[in-house]
Amino acid sequence: MVQLRPDPLDLALQLQAIRELQGFAVSNPDPGCAWTGDLNGVWQLHRHPTFASLISTLTGHAAAYLDGLGFDQTQLTLHIQRCWPVVSELGQVVGRHRHPNAHLSAVYYLNGDGSGRTGCLRFFPPHQVNELVPGLAVGHGGPIRADAPATTRWNAPWFDVAPRAGLLVLFPASVDHAVLDNDEPNDSRFSISLDLVLTAPPAAAGGTAEYLAPHPSDWLALHVDDPLRE
Asked: 131 lies in which domain range?
């Protein structure tokens, strides 16, 4: 997680642009579901000029995230696969899901005060790594002390992140996550989501596809009438 300090003027322009892209839609498709641009044809926000500087900053932090994990970035290429806005009104949520199409995901908040009232981002671990005795992570009066914050967090069945203006959260795209209800009647929740993919560098630049998928420039798209298609 990285706390950025957005320029108020840039932030106002970005919020206005998202509202214009959203149009008259208020949810998708259920009224209780937040409006997400990826399901409404708005999934290339990284190509929108209003967000160019912000996207450059966010992808810079994505590269730093990979560096922290030990990746040699001379041996890979990081791609933005898609980028979309999310707007959550009162009572709206985003259901539990993951992004199997990507390797790395990110969420950037354009507003929020850290209270969580507009809907926390909730992460679900694939398994409880500290669940020494099966079932203890669920709680309900078990032997895990309720007054031990660190212990409770290490054994919790989920981890919540409260929206805060300028907060960037990066996480593996394979991790299940959801967005809780917006309980604030006077405040919409605005965020930007990104999916990123790692590939090998282009073959022309010496890239090899031993461990990563080949660079998209080395792919061959097949069509129904393609002679290479069986």
From this structure: 124-158
Q: Residue 210: inside a domain, yes or no?
A: no
Chain CA centroid to CA 113, Å: 19
In sequence order, which ranges of 23-148 are alpha helices (DSSP H)? Answer: 52-68
Residue type (1 letter), 200: A
Total tally of structural domains belonging to the chain: 2
> Taking the CB of residue 50, how many other CB atoms lie within 10 A of it?
16
- With residues binned 3-state (H G I as helix, E B as strand, rest as coil), the percentages for the chain, rounded to 5, are 25, 25, 50
Q: Which of 79, 169, 60 is nearest to 122 (CA)?
A: 169
Mean pLDDT taken over the chain = 91
Q: Is 78 helix (H, G, I), strand (E, B) or coil?
A: strand
Helix axes 8-22, 52-68, angle to 10 degrees: 100
> Is residue 106 in a domain?
yes
Domain boundary among 107, 134, 158: 158
Contact partners, residue 3, CB within 8 Å, separation at least 6: 164, 166, 167, 168
Do 97 and 185 sit in the same domain of this protein? yes
| Amino acid sitting at position 109 | Y
Residues 187 and 112 in one domain: yes
Confidence band for 42, pLDDT divided at 50, 70 and 90: very high
| CA 161 – CA 174 distance, rounded (Å) | 17
pTM beyond 0.85: the answer is yes
- Indicate whether 204 belongs to any domain: no
Residue 216 lies in a domain: no
| The token pair that represents 60 in the structure block | 């810079």
